Description:
Elements: H1 2-8, E1 14-18, E2 21-29, E3 32-39, E4 44-49, H2 54-58, E5 61-64
Antiparallel strand pairs: 1-2, 1-5, 2-3, 3-4
Amino acid sequence: MIDKLKLIKDKAPSLLYQKGHVMLYIGIYNGKNYIIHASGSSLKVSLTVLDNSNYLKKINSAITIK
């Protein structure tokens, strides 16, 4: 998991993909990595800490937005 964070932490903003889910990595704030995403059937947008989360474990690919 730490390797995935190393690959993306300097590439904000980035789109992060996992099966059935897309997240926007927005960068580091107060030493924590954050994503914005809509989760669940409510489709409410959430701000989530990416560090050591299940989302980080399941990331398949990332695309840096320029």
